[in-house]
Amino acid sequence: MTQFLTTDSGVPFLRSPEADFEGLADYPFAPRHIEFEGLRLAYVDEGPSDGPVALLMHGMPTWSYLNRKIIRRLVAAGWRCIAADHIGFGRSDKVTDDGWYSIARHVAAHRLLIETLDLRAVTLFCQDWGGPIGLAQAAEQPERFSRLVVMNTWLHHAAYAYTDALKQWNAQWQPDGLFGMNIPEKLSLGWFMMLPLGHMKPADLFGVISTGTYPVLTPEQDAVRRGYDAPFEGLGRAGHAGPRRFPLSLPFDNPQGGAAEAQARWFEALLSWKKPVHFVWGGADAVFTEAWGRAWAAHYPQASFDLLPEAGHFLQETHGEQIAEIVLERMKAKP
Questions:
Q1: 110 within 8 A of 258, measured Cβ to Cβ
Q2: What are the residue boundaries of the AB hydrolase-1 domain, all occurrences included (predicted)?
């Protein structure tokens, strides 16, 4: 049963029962926890303790489950993989007050995790909101990081041009937007994920919302759907404050909540990054386009750029093993 709790400072939150995560496809990882502001931040720590360290960051509306294929391949290669769930996601506690969430808080939570585990010589894997939150760590603690793997993300700065797709994403999550009105009452996040993963068409999505008619999924597709639904089973609208807050924290819409000034500082600080950086980009993403990825990579003479032409925004889900192989091969060529 879901637990309704309050921190010592009076912040209300929900805690998903561990039973909701049992038997997920390709995700046998045991949860660990640290405390952040009286809340449990969940993470997995897989592989040998003395192996090369990978810190894998997820975005919206996913959790560490998104990175399971990369984790599996890297662990097989002898790596130690740490992947946390942002507060409000996955196995982490879910604050029910929308106003509690900010990019600064997410950054602080991951900083605490890195310092608590004393992670060093870290290879960062980041995508979507994992980009600003993860790259903030490398910008502020560069001595702890040895390599960056950047996938379909961004850092806000004055020259960045937000795509129409990202502006539409923000609009759809406003209170009167398609997702703002219908998630989770008519459309769960697991079913939503079936659309960008190619398991559902736009007409199917509108069918779910308007008539409650769901398309037929294969057993493999439904296992993935369950993986993305598991963190939010039975939590209702209050339990979705974390996912709801990310799209409403985009700096063009919410500069303070989205840490616009800090993001610009992180972008500028990382322009002097001299260590290896690998851009692995999904070419079919309308949110963070190939052109933007290549332009960003061009700032770094030492950068590699690998395009996965068919991959969309959630490339870890569709091309996880390939991403891991690309990085392992790049590391052979660029120590």
A1: no
A2: 55-174
Known active-site residue 128:
yes
The one catalytic residue among 110, 278, 285, 319: 285
The residue annotated as part of the active site, out of 128, 156, 229, 278, is 128
Over the chain (335 residues), the average pLDDT of each successive run of 10 is: 88 96 95 98 98 98 98 98 98 98 98 98 98 98 98 98 98 97 97 96 94 96 98 96 98 97 98 98 98 98 98 98 98 72
Record the tokens describing residue 257, joined without a space.
């909540």
Q: Which CATH number applies to 3-333?
A: 3.40.50.1820
Report H helices in 36-163: 68-76, 103-117, 130-140
**Residue 285 is a catalytic residue:** yes
| C-beta of residue 56 within 8 angstroms of C-beta of residue 83 | yes
- Looking up tokens 């900083």 gives 111
What are the structural domain ranges in the chain? 3-333
Calpha distance 226→190 (Å, rounded): 6
Q: Is 118 a catalytic residue?
A: no
Catalytic residue among 156, 240, 278, 313: 313
